[in-house]
Each structure stands twice: as C-alpha cells, then as structure tokens.
C-alpha cells in the first residue's frame, strides 16, 4: 500500500513532469538560460522565500508537538540562512543589494502562490501547513538531483551554484524530514481528508509550474 506522500507524489506527476521539461529548468541545467531571465527569477524568488518561511512559522504556531515545532523552526532557519544564502551569493555576483530587492514588486503569480499557501495554512491545521509547503520543497530537491546528474551541469560557472545548492545532502535531508513528517501527521487519515490534501499538493505543484513559466516570460 502506498504511503500518503507516495500518493501525493503520484497525483502530481503530470505537473512535475512539465516542470522538469520546462525551458527555464532545462536552461539552468544546460546553461542556456539568459542572465536576464535568471535575474528576474532570483528577485521574485527572494521575495517568495520570506513568505514561504512565514508558512513554516505558522506551522510552529499551529503545532502542539515540541518535536514538530523544533523541526519547523530548523526549517525556518534553513530557508532564511541556508537556502537564501544561494540567492544572496547570486545577488552579490549580479550587483543587487537587499534594499533593491525590496523595491521590486512581487508578481501576480508570486502573490497568488504565497497567498494561497498562507490562506490554506491559516484556515487549516498542521497537516495543511505541511502539505502546502511540501510541493515546493520536494520538487526543488528532485529538480536539483536531476540537473546535477547531467555531465558538467554542477560545475557550470554560473548555474552550478544553484544546482549544487538544491542537490546538496543538506537540502535533501531537510526535505526528507518534511516528507516523513507529512506521512506521520496524515497516517490513517480519512479518504475525505486525503482528497483535501491532494487538492492542496496538486494546486501548489501547478503554482510551481506557473513560477517557472512566469520567470521564463518575465511576467511581472
Ligand atoms: C517558487 C519556489 N518554489 C520552491 C522553492 C524551493 N524552496 C523555491 N526556492 N522557490
């Protein structure tokens, strides 16, 4: 029998396949993505990650289990001081200051995605919080792993740092902890609850695809 996370993963496969095949993702992998497109993505993603960290923080508020609270607070730290280090390094390379990022307006699709995660998490419980962040964390772990396997991709002078960041054992294990926690929280849940979770997971996966597309087209 499939675990809850395996069922969620299977349900989102058609959308994840489109993410893997998206020209933006392929372009990071083969180095053909323009710096202009990456710069646009970087700025939007930097803003996105602050709201994403807020969703984890909401999980701390919603949880009564000290172990879950510890894991989520570690995740907040991983995002703000780990994952975003990659962004800050690229900002330095591209001559962008944090003040300049905050002058950028988040795009419509960026706002739609973060507002969706925040709304679902505010209205729901700890399981809704976990499932709404899972597609984000998991799809990037998978994209990082796939791109890192292409010969030379991880050593690319510009995109290599992005690829190695998301393919790193640290990123993989923090994502794995979220997958396992989701299974634990939803073990033995009713079919009705599962369907609600699947809707959230697939919706967030669609937002992921939209984020790549928006960045490819520089849609602000
Ligand atoms: C839009 C988006 N989705 C996911 C990730 C990976 N945390 C990210 N940085 N940005």
TrEMBL record:
Boundaries of every Thiaminase-2/PQQC domain copy: 10-217
Reaction(s) this enzyme catalyzes, per UniProt: thiamine + H2O = 5-(2-hydroxyethyl)-4-methylthiazole + 4-amino-5-hydroxymethyl-2-methylpyrimidine + H(+); 4-amino-5-aminomethyl-2-methylpyrimidine + H2O = 4-amino-5-hydroxymethyl-2-methylpyrimidine + NH4(+)
Pathway listed: Cofactor biosynthesis; thiamine diphosphate biosynthesis
Record organism: Paenibacillus tundrae
Lineage: Bacteria, Bacillati, Bacillota, Bacilli, Bacillales
GO MF: thiaminase activity
Keywords: Hydrolase, Thiamine biosynthesis
Enzyme class: hydrolase
Family classification: Belongs to the TenA family.
EC numbers for this chain: 3.5.99.2
Protein name, UniProt field: Aminopyrimidine aminohydrolase
Subunit comment: Homotetramer.
């Amino acid at each position: 029998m499939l675990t809850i996370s395996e069922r969620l993963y299977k349900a989102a496969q058609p959308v994840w396949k489109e993410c893997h095949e998206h020209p933006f993702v392929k372009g990071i992998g083969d180095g053909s993505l323009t710096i202009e497109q990456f710069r646009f993505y970087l700025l939007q993603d930097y803003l996105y990650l602050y709201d994403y960290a807020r969703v984890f923080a909401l999980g701390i508020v919603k949880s009564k289990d000290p172990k879950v609270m510890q894991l989520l607070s570690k995740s907040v730290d991983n995002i703000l001081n780990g994952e975003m280090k990659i962004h800050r390094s690229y900002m330095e390379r591209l001559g962008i200051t944090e003040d300049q990022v905050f002058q950028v307006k988040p795009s419509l699709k960026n706002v739609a995605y973060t507002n969706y995660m925040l709304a679902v998490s505010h209205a729901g419980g700890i399981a809704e919080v976990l499932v709404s962040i899972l597609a984000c964390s998991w799809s990037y772990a998978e994209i990082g792993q796939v791109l890192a396997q292409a010969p030379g991709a991880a050593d690319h002078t510009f995109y290599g740092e992005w690829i190695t960041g998301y393919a790193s054992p640290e990123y993989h294990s923090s994502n794995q902890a979220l997958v396992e926690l989701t299974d634990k929280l939803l073990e033995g849940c009713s079919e009705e609850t599962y369907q609600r979770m699947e809707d959230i997971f697939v919706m967030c996966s669609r937002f992921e695809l939209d984020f790549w597309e928006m960045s490819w087209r520089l849609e602000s």
